[in-house]
Amino acid sequence: MNRVRFVLVGGFLGAGKTTTLARLARHYQSRGQKVGIVTNDQAQNLVDTNSLRAQGLAVEEVPGACFCCRFEDLVAKIGSLQAGERPDVILAEPVGSCTDLVATVVQPLKDLYGMRFSVAPYPVLFKPSHGQKILGGAESGFSPKASYIFQKQLEEADAIVLNRIDELSPAEVAELSALVIRQYPQATILKISAKTGAGFEALTELLDQEGAFGRRILSIDYDTYAEGEAELGWLNSSVQLTAEKAFDLDALLMEIINGIGSAMRRLGGEVAHLKVIGISDATYAVANLVSNTSTAELSLPAKSEVDSVDLVVNARVAIDPEDLRREMVRVVETAAGHVGAKVEFRQTQSLRPGRPVPTHRYTQPVG
Fold first, then answer.
1. Cα–Cα distance measured from residue 132 to residue 145, given in angstroms and rounded to the nearest whole number
2. Does this model's pTM top 0.90?
3. Is 137 left (phi over 0), alpha (psi -120 to 50) or beta?
4. N or C: which terminal CB in the chain sees fewer CB atoms within 10 Å?
5. pLDDT value at position 1?
6. How many angstroms separate the CA atoms of 236 and 261, rounded?
7. Separation CA 235–CA 6 (nearest Å)
8. Which stretches does DSSP call E strand in the chain?
């Protein structure tokens, strides 16, 4: 039996993992390979899962905790994809606040399931809007404990991938590269835009390589790690809007994203990532905001009007989750009122992530 290629792509919240996975999926499909994707979240109803499925991709989801704490669920979801789609490549997107993945996911897969999976080198996407501040010692909006997670993610990477270079000038890219190289001289540095495809060939070439990859076992303080994760308010909500007259879906999503972002800034909460997807029978759209200083964008515009839409809102903000829930409800209801739509909140979860308790944790690399 041929082994399935397993590609894990890490990175902080808002680093661009979902966009990267979608582009990687299209790359592998262009080579005639079948692709399956496994997403991961602390709660149910993930924008990423809905977005990737809307693009026609086969997706399974591991909710409730990071891959490391739901390792057997990860393996089971891959098994479900193998039974149905029979993929040649599995792309996996871990929770953006998770680290220590080499010790708890990569090494266990190599050791326990080496006959089933060929594990690719482990890239971690670098998020410029927060990363430059964290590595440069400037105020990032996150506490040192949350910043600790960001830094540990980079430390275990085989390659640090500077994403979103389309948003930076050449001088800013050079400055950022020098900053990362000084602090992480062990890692390969790649520069890409998952959005435009610039530099993407270097990433696909890396992921095709074989050799001594996925072996950087961290020395990590799990108390600091857990406390850093717990500082983030986590919200997932599914909502249905119905109106008598059709309304602009893109404008609605942008009003919601900008409204939540504005509320978080007013309350002193640093946005790690806000996402909202709107899905109707004929179309879908996705809007994002990745920091307090960034501009919200339509990553996947619909350019159409609808009179009924299912929304999924995901928010990861350094703020009390109840404040996050309250403001999300207020903003969605206000936006719905502007288009004359009725609102039904179907399911909303707001929480702080619990302490990570890995199923396996290797202290020495075995594969």
1. 17
2. yes
3. left
4. N
5. 60
6. 15
7. 29
8. 4-8, 10-11, 35-40, 58-62, 89-93, 117-119, 123-126, 159-162, 188-191, 233-248, 270-279, 284-289, 297-300, 305-318, 341-351
Cβ(309)–Cβ(249) under 8 Å? yes
Q: What is the pLDDT of residue 187?
A: 87
Tell me the average pLDDT of the chain.
96
Query: Residue 257, class by beta-carbon neighbours within 10 Å (0-12 exposed, 13-18 middle, 19+ buried)?
Result: buried
Note whether 282 and 315 are within 8 A (CB): no
Q: Which residues of the chain have pLDDT under 50?
A: none
Treating both helix axes as pointing N-terminal to C-terminal, what angle do 128-136 and 144-155 enclose, rounded to 10 degrees? 100
SS3 for 268-317, per residue?
A: CCEEEEEEEEEECCCCEEEEEECCCCCCCEEEECCCCEEEEEEEEEEEEE
- Residue 69: what are its φ and ψ, rounded to 5°? -90, -10
Cα separation, 47 vs 271, in Å, equals 16
- Tokens at residue 264, please? 């978080």
Query: Which ranges of 31-70 does DSSP label H, i.e. alpha helix?
Result: 47-54
State CA 181 to chain mean position distance: 24
SS3 326: helix
164 contacts: CB under 8 Å, gap ≥ 6: 16, 127, 128, 129, 193, 194, 195
Instruction: Write out the two tokens for 211.
Output: 């050799």
The C-alpha atoms of residue 29 and residue 25 are separated, in whole angstroms, by: 6
Phi-psi category of 330—alpha, beta or left, where left has phi over 0 and alpha has psi -120 to 50?
alpha
